[in-house]
Give the backbone structure.
Amino acid sequence: MLKLLALYFFTTLIHVPITEAKIREYNWEVKYEYKSPDCFRKQVITINGLSPGPTILAQQGDTVIVNVTNKLITESFAIHWHGIRQRGTPWSDGTAWVTQCPIGPGDTVTYEFKADRPGTYVYHAHYGMQRTAGLYGSIQVSLPDGVEEPFAYDFDQSILLNDWYHQSTSAQATGLTSIPYMWVGEPQSLLIQGKGKFNCSSVTLPTNICNTTNPECSPYVITVIPGKTYRLRIASLTALSALSFQIEGHKMTVVEADGYNVEPFEVDKLYIYSGETYSVIIKADQDPSRNYWATTNVISRHPNTPPGLAIFTYEPNEPQQSPPTVPPAGPVWNDTADQFAQSQALKARQGYIHTPPPTSDRTLVFLTTQNTINGYTRWAVNNVSLDIPETPFLIALKYNLPNAMDQTPPPDTYDSLNYDINNVAKNKNATSSTAIYRLKFNTTVDVIMQNANTMKMSHSETHPWHLHGHDFWVLGNGIGKFDLKEDTKKFNLVNPVMKNTVPVFPFGWTALRFQADNPGVWAFHCHIEPHFYLGMGVAFEAGVEKVGKLPTFIMGCGQSRGLLN
Amino acid sequence: MLKLLALYFFTTLIHVPITEAKIREYNWEVKYEYKSPDCFRKQVITINGLSPGPTILAQQGDTVIVNVTNKLITESFAIHWHGIRQRGTPWSDGTAWVTQCPIGPGDTVTYEFKADRPGTYVYHAHYGMQRTAGLYGSIQVSLPDGVEEPFAYDFDQSILLNDWYHQSTSAQATGLTSIPYMWVGEPQSLLIQGKGKFNCSSVTLPTNICNTTNPECSPYVITVIPGKTYRLRIASLTALSALSFQIEGHKMTVVEADGYNVEPFEVDKLYIYSGETYSVIIKADQDPSRNYWATTNVISRHPNTPPGLAIFTYEPNEPQQSPPTVPPAGPVWNDTADQFAQSQALKARQGYIHTPPPTSDRTLVFLTTQNTINGYTRWAVNNVSLDIPETPFLIALKYNLPNAMDQTPPPDTYDSLNYDINNVAKNKNATSSTAIYRLKFNTTVDVIMQNANTMKMSHSETHPWHLHGHDFWVLGNGIGKFDLKEDTKKFNLVNPVMKNTVPVFPFGWTALRFQADNPGVWAFHCHIEPHFYLGMGVAFEAGVEKVGKLPTFIMGCGQSRGLLN
């Protein structure tokens, strides 16, 4: 109700008759404000005073228009519409230095794009480390009138999961690019729909800075009516953490992932990686006289952050009443086998299978490693760490500005034969470049993501990889070094799930296939914020010559300064 | 020596024969780095790794070229060359939203201007609250070969004074524009040439964050040779604090202020307000067997910050050896009479008098007050608080873009008869506007700065007012309400000092006269960083139609986006 009110006050929804595609127009003001999402007061980037920002609601086929005004003081930003493919509007992808110049202070720009697929998506800042400042929110795209989901529910609710740091994003970013390297460390708390609880008594801080009784950090409440069925649209936009999510005493049935219907399967807890979205169906079928815990826990990394807690309450209970139980323990953080099993369970739902092309035209094998460049810690793909270009790639390529970026193509593969993924690399050095991958338009591309040991002995991390502008088929994954001969034979070409974000497990690989059928330039990167910030990503160009006239709102930096007229 | 080496390594000086005007070219990279100037580690904006940045050295008539690259992560900035009049180059004044769009991340721009007057100047960030992040340095303009100063010295040295906050500028700025208002408070330390000493044991912080033995915060050392004479060019770029500066056991003779020779007078301690520069002559004529303290203290506000300490050492003593004495006490902080007396002592030096025009064509009487606008705390001039325009004033006026700013002229005076400057105003509300003062070109303008009670009972502050693009004569000052009839009669029209920054004392007034003979748009504002940030300033336009073609580097924001071609 409050959320609806907030939407009413803070956004402008233009309703036209529901029989035709509608325009959903939002006016957003982006600025810094002091907030205490986990009881600790810090600077947060808000949209119309909110973090998470307003939920974008659209119906398949609608046009979404977001007029964004930069009211930050000295900072620029860009907003990425994560999961929206931006077919025909690659300039609206909102990825700083890939598809646009950052939006400068004082400027108002208009993002316009089609919600061309139903499902659960998110939006978030895509510039530097700004996502961690709280600039994000949910997107729900519903089916056209008269079209039904293959699963039934009474109510629909978005829940954004996040990890939360008390250091400013700018301080984090500076530390990451310092010598000596200052890692951001584990988050101070986990947020469920923007609310967490930091233990203020663990530090010596005045109560105006940290106060666990501050109503701003009262737990998030999921209110249900006994007997009803709920669709929870769960998304993770963590900076770093892989998470589990569970609701005490309630099973969840996974039905959607990244906008695609999946063969339903039941879980006690959902594993979710940064950049992923899931819909789960949950029935309010337990003892309605009490409340239950909804919890999120760090997995994949040794947790140093307490679980995030929300309250799952049956009407008409007192919503903020703590459940009578201790919150259920999360899963064992390093049970990779169990995490892997959930990934394996994800299949396209019968009747909703998009069959992949049987073969690909080009295979990219991407070894992802932690490296050192001139003493700085970086992350690299095939030993090349992505540098920020002078001019956004989309503009540089569309306008054929060859000096704007490196021209030597980055490598399609790595020396798999001689590279030991299970040990610290003998040579930790890498190079960096602003070169990108040029794909032939309308071809099919396989990408094998190969994970390896980091610079620390016996240590490899889970990386969620996100592709802009496309969905991909997840053809397979495994632990160990990918075998181009044997593992390709085991690819699932029958009912692979389509996604836009997928985890690559420690020392493991994940195989993707996608069609380069969306003209533009698209980032493909690890969704862990400090990893992409340190170069763990690539960009793919395809059919840039087919891209329409670029709008001027994306220009104004580097060599695009002269293109504003 | 180290400084010279640093200059050698970090800047490019192009030397052409000294008989003609030279070009002094600098290449600067501006970025965030972790530094511990007062032993507390925080993010600092550096130039080529330094804060204070490299000292600009030029000879009168030289052209200074500074190529600045923005390597901040998501922030823009602008650099103001404080005291340089920018005659013929108003676009190089470096004042965000007045003379230029902020310089965006990744951009390289070139400031070019003539060092047309000898003297002591500074440069600093002029955007939001960024000056407090450490982006500043000294400018020394020497006389042409063969021209002598009217005072003798063997060595010349710049010393920048500052106050220092541990909170980031962004956090400060957000707090200032919050409801409830969060004032920045008193600084944590005072810096002498970028070095201070915070008492780390007063807080619970790990030693990697605060460590008083960190060599980065070893005291600044002024090394002298016994018997020699020194010119110390002392500048203050404090965010908030008025300061005193003294050297234990040594008298100082004030000889220059803001680039003008003044009738010499001797002081034990120098009072200096933010934005002011002074040259003092000091003789190394004391017992050379020991070191002495150089100290700076907060004045005008109840000090809550320990004195800043540097070491004045005679060669060949151990420079870092603490003097055997306790540092001398600073002056009584609220001895306004003594501070006022120093202002009164400032007269143009015989032989160097620039006689002011005997009358003015227009008199502006500026009442400056702390106010409330829609619940926000602001500062105002004649009840109007300056808002940031959509398009920089210089561009809007030169290109005649009337929609870019408010057109109703701000008031020339206030209701002096009915305003009680000694009490809290009955109506604290003010308005805000992007309107500016249009001056007739080549006319003489008087500005009477009238200080008043703040929103707190029996409380008024010292405000240093700085004029861009011009020097002004200081015709007089006093305590109480300015009397247009009586006080004008007492104006010093014989030997008034010329300055670019002048204090206005609590409950007092200061009268200035200047000639509007520099085509452009120029800020005139309180040099206290949070005060100008909250609207305590105006802008003057004169002869904008005579301004040459604006360079594109100042464009790209607001309505100037379309002017880049």
Notes: Chain B has six helices and 32 strands. Residues 1-18 of chain B have pLDDT under 50 and may be disordered.
